[in-house]
C-alpha cells in the first residue's frame, strides 16, 4: 500500500501560503488571535474575517501538478491512500476522491455547539451550499449557536475516526510519501514514524530539511509539483 501524507508545501505552487515559511501565515498572524477556540469565543468576527479572506484566496487557487499526480495515483492503482493536513480542498478539486483531511476543511461550516449542522460552502459544491451569512455578518446556526469553519484549531482534538483511519493506513503502508510538511504539528507528524516502525519505506519530498528528514529512508529535495510527477514517471 502506498500512502501519501501531505502538508501546506504541496499547495505552495498553487499560490497558497504555507504556515511557517518566509511568507508563512504564522509569521504574519498570531495563532492565538485566529486559530484557537478561545479566539473564536472572544472575537468571532475577527476569526470569520480571516477565514473569509483565506477562502477568497483559495477560491482563486487551482490544483497544481503535485495534486494532479496524487489524484492519478488513486485512479490508476489500488492500494493508495491520501492523508492531508491541508484544509484547502485542492486535493479533491484535483480529482482525489478519498482524502483523509486531518485538520478539517475550510470550505465546510459547522455549528460551534456541534448540533450536527454542516454546510459545504465551496464555490464548486454540487449542489452549491447555502452561504452561511453575508460577509459582514456572523453566521448563526438554526439551533442559535454561531457557525464556525470546520477546521481543527490549536488546542482541539482531531476527528478520531479520520485520525484512526490514517493510523491504520500508516501501519499497513509499504511506502509513505511525506510531501511538503514541516513535520512540526502532531499527531500528523507522528504518522511517518508509525509507518516506518511497521516496516514502511519513508520518502520525504520537500524543498527543505525538516525534523522528519532524519526518519526518512529517502529524501527528495525539490518542489512537489516537479518531484511527484518525476517519481511517477520512473515507476
Ligand atoms: P508548514 O508551513 O509548517 O510547512 C510547509 C512545508 O512545506 C515546509 O517544510 C516547506 O519547506 C515545505 N514546502 C514549501 N514549498 C514547497 C514545495 N513547493 N514543495 C514541497 N515542499 C514545500 O505547513 P504544514 O506542515 O502543513 O494546521 O503545517 C502543519 C499544520 O500547521 C497545518 O495543517 C496547519 C498549521 O497550523 C491547521 O490548520 C490545524
Describe the structure.
By secondary structure, the protein is of the alpha/beta class. Helices cover 35% and strands 19% of the residues. The chain has helices at 9-12, 25-28, 31-34, 37-42, 44-60, 65-76, 90-94, 160-172, 191-197, 224-234, and strands at 2-6, 80-84, 99-101, 104-111, 118-120, 147-151, 175-179, 201-206, 218-221. The protein has a 6-stranded parallel β-sheet, sandwiched between helices. The two termini are 15 Å apart. The mean pLDDT is 94. 2'-O-acetyl adenosine-5-diphosphoribose (OAD) binds at residues 7-9, 12-13, 18-21, 24, 85, 87, 103, 151-152, 180-182, 184-185, 205-208, 210, 223-224.
Produce a short descriptive summary.
The chain is an alpha/beta fold and 235 residues long. The protein is 35% helix and 19% strand. The protein contains ten helices and nine strands.
Amino acid at each position: 500500500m502506498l500512502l501519501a501524507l501531505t502538508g501546506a508545501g504541496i499547495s505552495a505552487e498553487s499560490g497558497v501560503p504555507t504556515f511557517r515559511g518566509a511568507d508563512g501565515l504564522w509569521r504574519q498572524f498570531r495563532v492565538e488571535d485566529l486559530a484557537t477556540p478561545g479566539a473564536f469565543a472572544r472575537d468571532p468576527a475577527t476569526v470569520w474575517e480571516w477565514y473569509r479572506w483565506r477562502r477568497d484566496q483559495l477560491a482563486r487557487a487551482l490544483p497544481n501538478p503535485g495534486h494532479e499526480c496524487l489524484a492519478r495515483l488513486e485512479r490508476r492503482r489500488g492500494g493508495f491512500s491520501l492523508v492531508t493536513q491541508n484544509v484547502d480542498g485542492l486535493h479533491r478539486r484535483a480529482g482525489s476522491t478519498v482524502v483523509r483531511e486531518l485538520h478539517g476543511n475550510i470550505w465546510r461550516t459547522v455549528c460551534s455547539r456541534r448540533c450536527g449542522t454542516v454546510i459545504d460552502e465551496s464555490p464548486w459544491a454540487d449542489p452549491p451550499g447555502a452561504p452561511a451569512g453575508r460577509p459582514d455578518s456572523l453566521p448563526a446556526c438554526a439551533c442559535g449557536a454561531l457557525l464556525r469553519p470546520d477546521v481543527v484549531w490549536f488546542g482541539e482534538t482531531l476527528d478520531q475516526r479520520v485520525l484512526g483511519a490514517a493510523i491504520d493506513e500508516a501501519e499497513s503502508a509499504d511506502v509513505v510519501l511525506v510531501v511538503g510538511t514541516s513535520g512540526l504539528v502532531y499527531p500528523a507528524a507522528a504518522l511517518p514514524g508509525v509507518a516506518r516502525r511497521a516496516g514502511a519505506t519513508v520518502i520525504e519530498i520537500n524543498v527543505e530539511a525538516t525534523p522528519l528528514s532524519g526518519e526518512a529512508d529517502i529524501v527528495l529535495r525539490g518542489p512537489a509539483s516537479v518531484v511527484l510527477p518525476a517519481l511517477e514517471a520512473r515507476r
